[in-house]
Every structure is written in structure tokens, then in C-alpha cells.
Amino acid sequence: MNIKYEHENIFSILSQYPDAAIEIIEYFFNSIDKGLAIIDDKNIIIKHNDSFREIFNSKTSLLGLSLQKIIPNYEQNSSQNFYFVEDLKKNLKIDSKTICVENASFTIVKVSNYYPDSNIIEKDSEVKFYKEMYENIINSIDEGIHAIDTSGKLFVYNSSIEKLEGYKASEIIGKHVTEVYNLDWKTSLLLKVLKEGKPIFDFHQSYTTTNGKWVDVMTSIVPLYSKDKIIGAAAILKDFTNFKKMAEQVLDLQEQLHNKKLNTNNQTSEKKHDTKYEILGKNKQFIESINWAKAAAATESPVLIYGETGTGKELFAQSIHSKGIRSKGPFLAINCAAIPENLLEGILFGTTKGAFTGAIDRAGLLEQANSGTLFLDEVNSMPLALQAKLLRVLENKKIRRLGAKEEISIDTRIISSCNLEPTTAIEKQMLRADLFYRLAVVYIDIPPLRQRTDDIELLSNHFIDYYNKYLKKNIQCLSKEILLAFKKFHWPGNIRQLKHTIECAMNIVTANEPYIEKCHIPKYLNIFPKLNTSISNTINNHSNASFENIHLFDQIKIEERNRIIDIIKKNKGNISKSAAELGMSRQSLQYRIKKYKLK
Fold first, then answer.
1. Alpha carbon of 506 to those of 301, 469, 470, 486, 523: distances in Å?
2. Which residue, of 305, 390, 424, 427, is most buried by count of CB atoms within 10 Å of its CB?
3. pLDDT tens-digit map of 98-157
4. CA 542 to chain centre
5. 373 and 483, same structural domain?
6. Which biological process terms from the Gene Ontology are attached to this UniProt entry (predicted)?
């Protein structure tokens, strides 16, 4: 019997047992866990199973009802498979098949609850979360940010740039950059970076938007990458007008201070620059530097001071000025690395009304320091084009304000400094050789603290005495253990780092403790061998790194810089591979290369 039925159609089998056929079909119909219903050509339910009724939360039969009544938006023979039933708050999946029997047609409808893939829901939720997070961050940044895709259309326009340019993001998003600005493919920096893939940093721009608003900004533009393919370009804009106002306020304050000194003939402030009180040391090499400074004070020649960051270059410059014949004149100082290129020229040479938008008649530092001294800190960071103008000033003793036609004679002594060995700066084209020879008529080399271990105790006691008065403590000195450790330490931040370390310890030590002990020293220094870590090793092995303030964040930056160098060398200069290994995007690595001046 089994062999006979093995390959036969189920209906041919059931036809042999007509009495049992209906019961068997009913059993199968109700055993299926999907909702099944049969509807006629008018969408009236003429048969359904228990699962169908349960799906619609009905305890009674649904026979005789129209399918549209329980699924309002259902359409027979529609290609739609998914429906949301508002009354049930359910998603349903519906499959149907129409069967024609003689002159009648019936549709078998299969209904099941539909649950969207939980992974998809989770991913959609995550994407939405990060999108909102990204938008909040972008719109909370003070700098204006806008970005274009590969077609040149804007897809990012944050709230800061709305205020800067006067547009609304809703008006801008989706428009081509040339529609918004009076630019074309040749003059737009965004389109230039998009085409060439090379970032542009700190570029001064002045332009008028199509709505007539004048904008004066400092701009950096970077290409956007995805899997080594350019997908757009972004611009970060800083309001240059506010920056210029702040710079002008600084100049005003310097001018007021200078005038006050001249009017009152008060020279008390000059005494604080006395070498006797400020520059301490008994180290033979350091004493030689002091003697050179004393000799320079007796002359009018330009002086160039070389020393690592934190060695006291400005103190030497102040002392040379206060001990010289110009001590009654002003002493002005500027860090050339801290001022944007386009602003530095105006600060040094001065401006005339109309030279650029918002410009006023103002004397520059070279003019303000007349009959006194101007200290140019980190002159190796000055743009080469501006170095050429400075060379001309040194030779002719004349300046021309920006926008002016006439030259002004000045009598200003120039003292400058480098935090990079001058010959190296010249080789790297950071310092003009002809300017170096003109600035370094007197050349003073200040040794780093690691070469002055015999001065560690003297300097430490000096700082302890200072902070005893300032913090109202009564500390005698360093413990022997700490003094020995200090003498062995590398001090990459030099005297500035030693001073800050003493200040930290003096804040921690209690009133009844006579010495600075091991427990008072900040742990990130790792001055004891057993506490040595990769961070301290990195810092000690890179003594020429730039340290403005040696604290934890500086050390982390040094470690990051050196890791980037190692990875790029390992990958033979391949930026994409290096970025992947460092776990950052290509543009992020390009930014850090620029930031750490690795090119």
C-alpha cells in the first residue's frame, strides 16, 4: 500500500477516501501556524483557520466579513505584501494566490505577523543617534563649517556659518557652491581641493556672498575621503574680523603702556629684567652665555638667541635691553609662531586706513618700539616672504605701513630667537640665510637644562623660595632622593618644566613637611627608573620636541607625533596604509602631519 501511494498526488489519494478527505483537509488547514483564509471574488471571507482569527485578536468567527474591513488598505491582486493595521498596531505580511474553478474564482490568503529585522532596527537607531550627535557637534562649534560632495553641491552648512554669511542652511543645502558664491571652478578653493585632493590651511579670504554680505575669514579646506576615494571637501572658517579686533586691542594696550612709561618716566618695571635677579646659574657653559649677553647689552647690534623651548630666551632678551643704553625705551615682544601669516605683517609694519576692509591708521610694533627693542620670538616661524621685508628694514632702518606710499624712518633694535638650531632651520628653508647673518651679529647659545645639572639645586631652591612666599609655605628644599632624581632626569621642557614641577609639588606638600619628597612629584614625569613608561621614554628620546608647557597632554602629543613618524616610516610614506594602521581616517592623518610639521 505504501509503495503504491509513494509517487501519487495527495488529491488522487484522498479521492479514494471521500468520507475522510474533508476531515483531513480541515485538519491540515487548522494545523498551519500561518493565518489562512479563502475569499471570494468580492473579498468576502468564506473560510479561515484558527491562526487567522488569532492574528486579528478575534474570539469569534470572521466568516462573511470583507477582508478590507479588517485590513482597511488591502487591495486584491496588489503587488503590496506588507500592511500596517492601525487598530491592531501590527505589521502584517500577506501572500495570496487566486484559483479559478469553472466559472468562479477564489483567493487563498496567507497572513502572518511581520517583525522587521531587529538588527536593521538597531542599526537604523544607531545611525539616527550618530546623525543627531554629529549635527549637534557641528552646530555647537564656533567655526563656520560647510562641505560639498563630488558634484560640488553643499551638504553641510552649520549654524556658525549661517551667522557669518547670513544664509539659512535650508536655503543652501543641495545647491552648487557656484550658485551660492560669486565663484567658479577656477576660483573656488573648495572645488580646487576637491579636484586636487590637497588640503589648504590658514588661507585669508575676503568675499561677498550673493546676498551682498561682506565676509572676512581665515579658512582651512580639507578633502574628504572614504576608502581612499575623495567623496567631497570641507571648509572650516574663522571670523578674521574678530581676530583682527583682538590683535588691535593688544596693540592699543602696548601703545598705552609705552606712553605711560614715557609720561611718568617710571623705570621701576625695567629693573625686574635685571640679569642679577632673573637669570641664575653657575654652570660654566651657562656663565659663558651670560657673559655674551652682558657684552651684547653694551652694543647696538642685532642679537639672535638660540635655545630649546623653556630655556629662558626672552629673559635674556629682556636683560640685554634693560642693561643697555635703550633701557628707557620700550621693550616689545611678539611670538611669530602664534600669529597667522596674513595678520603678522600688519602687526609688525602697521596699517593705513583703506589698506583692507576695516583697516585704520595704526603703528606697527617696529614703529612702536622706536628708540627701544623689539623681540621676535621664534623668528624661524616667520613666513619667508616676510623675512625678506624684515631684512630690508634691518638694512635701511625704514618701514612702510600696509597701504602707505611713504616710508617711515625707525630706530629700533632687533633681538630675535630660534627654538630650532639655525643651520637646521636654514636647511629646512624655515629661515633665510641672509636674514640669519644679519640677525646673528651677536649669537647667544643657551644650553638646555640637561647640560646644567650643577644648576638644578640652585634653581630648585630659587623656585621653592618663590612659592613659599606665594603659597605661604615653609619648605626648606628638595629631599636628597628627589635632588638626585632631578639631576638624572632629561628635562625636555627645561627650566619652565622644572618650575612647573616645583609649583605642583608645593601645592601638594603640607605645612608641616620640610622637604619635597617623592610622593609630591607628579607621576606623569616618571623620574624614577622603576616607574618608566613608553611615554617618558618617548619624551626623553626626543629632547628637541616643542614643549610650550610640559604636562600630561603635551606628553601625549609627543607620543602621538613619534608614533605617527614610526608608522609612516614603516609604511614607506604610504599615507593610506599608515592611517589604517593608526586607526584614523586619511584626512585625520593629513591634518596631524600638518599640525606636527612632519613635512
1. 42, 11, 10, 16, 15
2. 305
3. 888 777 788 888 888 876 654 555 555 566 666 777 788 888 888 889 999 888 899 899
4. 24
5. no
6. regulation of DNA-templated transcription
- Examine the pLDDT at 526 and tell me if it is beyond 90: no
pTM score over 0.90: no
Instruction: Estimate to the nearest angstrom the gap between the alpha carbon of 360 and the chain centroid.
Output: 33
According to the model, what pLDDT value does residue 253 have?
A: 61
- The residues facing 111 across adjacent strands are 35, 94
**What distance, in Å, lies between the first and last C-alpha atoms of the chain?**
88
Asked whether the predicted pLDDT for residue 277 surpasses 50, the reply is no
Structural contact between residues 528 and 552, judged by C-beta atoms closer than 8 angstroms: no
In a domain, 157, yes or no: yes
- The amino acid at 375: F
Of 87, 113, 139, the one marking the end of a domain is: 113
Structural domains of the chain, count: 5
For residues 387 and 435, the answer to whether their CB atoms sit within 8 Å is yes
Asked if residue 1 is part of any domain, the answer here is no
Distance (Å, rounded) from C-alpha 259 to C-alpha 131? 55
Is residue 521 a contact partner of residue 505, using CB atoms and an 8 Å limit? yes
Looking at the fold, whether 286 and 420 belong to one and the same domain comes out as: yes
CA 369 from centre of chain: 36
Q: Which domain holds residue 413?
A: 267-447
pLDDT digits (tens, 9 = 90+) for 401-453: 877 788 889 999 999 999 889 998 899 888 999 999 999 999 999 999 989 98
With vertex at residue 394, the alpha carbon angle to CA 393 and CA 398, rounded to the nearest 5 degrees, is 35
Please report whether residue 15 resides in a domain. Answer: no
The residue among 77, 80, 106, 76 whose CA lies nearest residue 92 is 80
* Nearby residues of 408 by Cβ (< 8 Å), 6 or more positions away: 367, 398, 399, 400, 401
Are residues 224 and 77 located together in one domain of the fold? no
